[in-house]
Specification:
It is a single chain. By secondary structure, the protein is an alpha/beta fold. The protein has one domain (9-284): TIM Barrel, CATH 3.20.20. The protein is 39% helix and 15% strand. It has helices at residues 16-27, 33-36, 42-47, 81-92, 112-125, 142-150, 167-170, 176-189, 207-219, 246-259, 276-284, and strands at residues 31-32, 52-55, 59-60, 70-71, 96-101, 130-134, 155-157, 195-201, 224-229, 263-267. The strands form two sheets. An eight-stranded mixed beta sheet has the order 1-2-5-6-7-8-9-10, sandwiched between helices. It has a two-stranded parallel sheet with strand order 3-4. Strand 6 (130-134), helix 6 (142-150) and strand 7 (155-157) form a beta-alpha-beta unit.
């Protein structure tokens, strides 16, 4: 693959805010997807006093070929983690927080109860903070999904990640239709909670496939969308097939809004929780 184009080159902001957030997370024995997934926005987000908490340990039971999160035997669930997350959110003064997790296929409920407990502890300590959850597919377990939705997050996010043709190589262990069904079921359980999803571009998908996936998401009740550039985290991961120019991301944003999405973030550096608060506010204003 050719070197990264100029639009993917940026200065890395550091400073006291960045070091403060990193120190707090280390002291609290908490993980973030920013660190574990090698997110390109970590410097910016930490410097702005934000992060996406990664609960249930740093080790995933699946091995998706796009993701830098470690895989293998997971650690036991830490019952004290929800309280520590809530305390960290309070210490950071966050008005909006995103909670995600590794996939825990080893647990009977996929970790749904731990998600619910984390939401509960945040509500108890800082009731005015908005909570977005980015959840795995729970292997299609409706009861597990219901457990999370009944805890009433402000946004329920589940990433579709890519077009169905590429699932076998990109999302091993996942099923395209199962992810769509999860979003649809979430809306049926509580239609007042907006659902959100995201795709990575640059893995070899065709324009027609993107359009069809966006339509499938809309048909499943998804109203908030993120579109970002896939970046290869290590040489062992899938290579980038194409770097999408910013103007093409602008095209997809315009297309998605015209199709009926309430809010869309689309750009080379966009990730599923990037500027999540602003995207939620945009959707809520409609």
């Amino acid at each position: 693959m050719n070197p990264k184009p100029r639009w993917l080159k940026r200065k890395l902001p550091t400073g006291p805010e960045y070091e403060s957030v990193r120190g707090l997370l280390k002291k609290s024995r908490l993980h973030t997807v920013c660190q574990e997934a090698r997110c390109p926005n970590i410097w910016e987000c930490f410097s702005r006093g934000t992060s996406t908490f990664l609960i249930m340990g740093p080790c995933c039971t699946r091995n998706c070929r796009f993701c830098a999160v470690a895989h293998g035997l997971p650690v036991p669930i830490d019952p004290g983690e929800p309280v520590r997350v809530a305390e960290a959110v309070q210490s950071m003064g966050l008005s909006y927080v995103v909670i995600t997790s590794v996939t825990r296929d080893d647990l009977p409920d996929g970790g749904a109860g731990h998600f619910a407990e984390t939401i509960k502890e945040i509500r108890k300590k800082i009731p005015d903070t908005f909570v977005e959850v980015l959840i795995p597919d729970f292997k299609g377990d409706f009861n597990a999904l219901q457990t999370v939705v009944k805890a009433h997050p402000d946004v329920l996010n589940h990433n579709i990640e890519t077009v169905p043709r590429l699932y076998a190589s990109v999302r091993q262990g996942a099923i395209y239709r199962r992810s769509l069904d999860l979003l649809k079921q979430a809306e049926q359980i509580d239609p007042t909670i907006p659902t959100k999803s995201g795709l990575m571009l640059g893995l070899g998908e065709a324009s027609g496939e993107i359009e069809k996936t966006l339509k499938d998401l809309l048909d499943s009740g998804c109203s908030i969308l993120t579109l970002g550039q896939y970046l290869q985290p290590t040489r062992e991961h899938l290579p980038v097939k194409r770097y999408i120019p910013p103007e093409e991301f602008d095209h997809w944003k315009e297309t998605a809004l015209e199709m009926g999405f309430s809010a869309v973030a689309s750009g080379p550096f966009v990730r599923s929780s990037y500027h999540a608060k602003e995207l939620y506010q945009e959707a809520a204003a409609i």
